[in-house]
Amino acid sequence: MANASEFGKVAVLLGGKSAEREVSLNSGKAVLEALVRSGVDAEAFDPQERSVTELVNYDRAFIVLHGRGGEDGQIQGALEWLNLPYTGTGVQGSAIGMDKVKTKQVWQGSELPTAPYRIVTKDSDLNAVVESIGLPFIIKPVHEGSSIGMSKVERLEDFALAIAKATEHDAVVMAEKWITGREFTIVILNGQALPVIRLEPPKDVAFYDYDAKYKRNDVQYGIPCGLTEAEEKQLQTLCLRAFQAVGASGWGRIDAMQDEQGNFWLLEVNTVPGMTSHSLVPKAAQAVGYSFDELCVAILEQTLTAVAH
Questions:
Q1: Is 270 labelled a binding residue?
Q2: 277 — phi, psi (to 5°)?
Q3: Helices 100-109, 229-245: crossing angle, 10 deg rounding
Q4: CA-CA distance, 302 to 295, in Å (whole number)?
Q5: How many Å from the N-terminal Cα to the C-terminal Cα in the chain?
Q6: What's an example Gene Ontology biological process for this entry (predicted)?
Q7: Please, which residues have CB within 8 angstroms of residue 158's CB and are 6 or more apart in sequence?
Q8: Is residue 189 domain-shared with residue 282, that is, in the same domain?
Q9: What are phi and psi of 103, to 5 degrees?
Q10: Which residues of 41-56 are buried (b: 16+ CB within 10 A; e: fewer)?
């Protein structure tokens, strides 16, 4: 592990102006406290309240900005311009990862399994959508994270409301085939896939939504995940390939499903995952012996390696 003094002055980028601001503030606070406990000279830096030009006063950045502005290549581009090393994925991988459609297109082009989808609007021919991907399906804003604006559509009459909810957050909306089965998340850290986590939201929740992610305490997290050893290895390998395909690096998380026939389906990639008390990255890292503080330092250490993003 690096000596804390090697890092110099570190800006922990948190908050921002996306719909995930509140989560980012919580994640950033946890990361900042962990780095300070580890002896790192770290400070909180909220780009909504300060000009990014002030980052010239720092030696490196730990990005904990979720959603647009922080996870889509924008802040990464500013940091590249300032020649400031930063954690996680570079500009291009961040931009692809934040766009659910672009991510799917890359995965499809790489012959990786991802659920069928259609880009939709309130004027879409519903029968054509149903014919293409079937019912039920899930409506998602293409450029949001944390399950914001998502709805399950089981009947055609639910479609208009689901579209209205999603378009509050994004001009581009997709319908994705609903996969019935088991939900998993796979954390990637420094080129390794950590133990798979099975997500089991309570029965009254249609899917692992915003409240389940951040507010409820009755979600079950399975480590071990309940897959056979061979299946877990297969899923880890698949997710590493998916992570690399979009150009992601450093650390992140991939969400996946296993359908009732046992097939795996990739859902999406998170290039700046949550780091709150409810978050999945710390849970997976703990399973391989990392304390939260050690995890934060391990992620920050990525900035010491001169690798072009």
A1: yes
A2: -65, -25
A3: 110
A4: 11
A5: 22
A6: cell wall organization
A7: 151
A8: yes
A9: -60, -45
A10: ebebbbbeeeebeebe
| DSSP assigned state of 250 | S
pLDDT at 264: 98
**pLDDT means over runs of 10, the chain (309 residues):** 88 92 94 97 97 96 93 96 96 95 96 93 83 89 73 85 84 89 95 95 58 58 94 98 97 96 95 88 95 96 74
Do residue 233 and residue 162 come from a single domain?
no
Q: Note the pLDDT of residue 308.
A: 45
Under 8 Å between Cβ of 218 and 202: yes
Domain holding 64, by residue range, is: 4-87
Of the candidates 213, 221, 63, the one whose C-alpha atom is nearest the C-alpha of residue 146 is: 213
Q: Catalytic positions, please?
A: 20, 146, 279
Q: Which residue has the tokens 């297969």?
A: 234
Check whether residue 144 and residue 283 sit in a common domain: no
Q: Are residues 186 and 167 in the same domain?
A: no
Whether residue 218 is found in the same domain as residue 273 = yes
Q: What is the CATH number of the domain that holds 152?
A: 3.30.1490.20
What's the pLDDT score for residue 217?
A: 60
Predicted TM-score (pTM) of this structure: 0.89
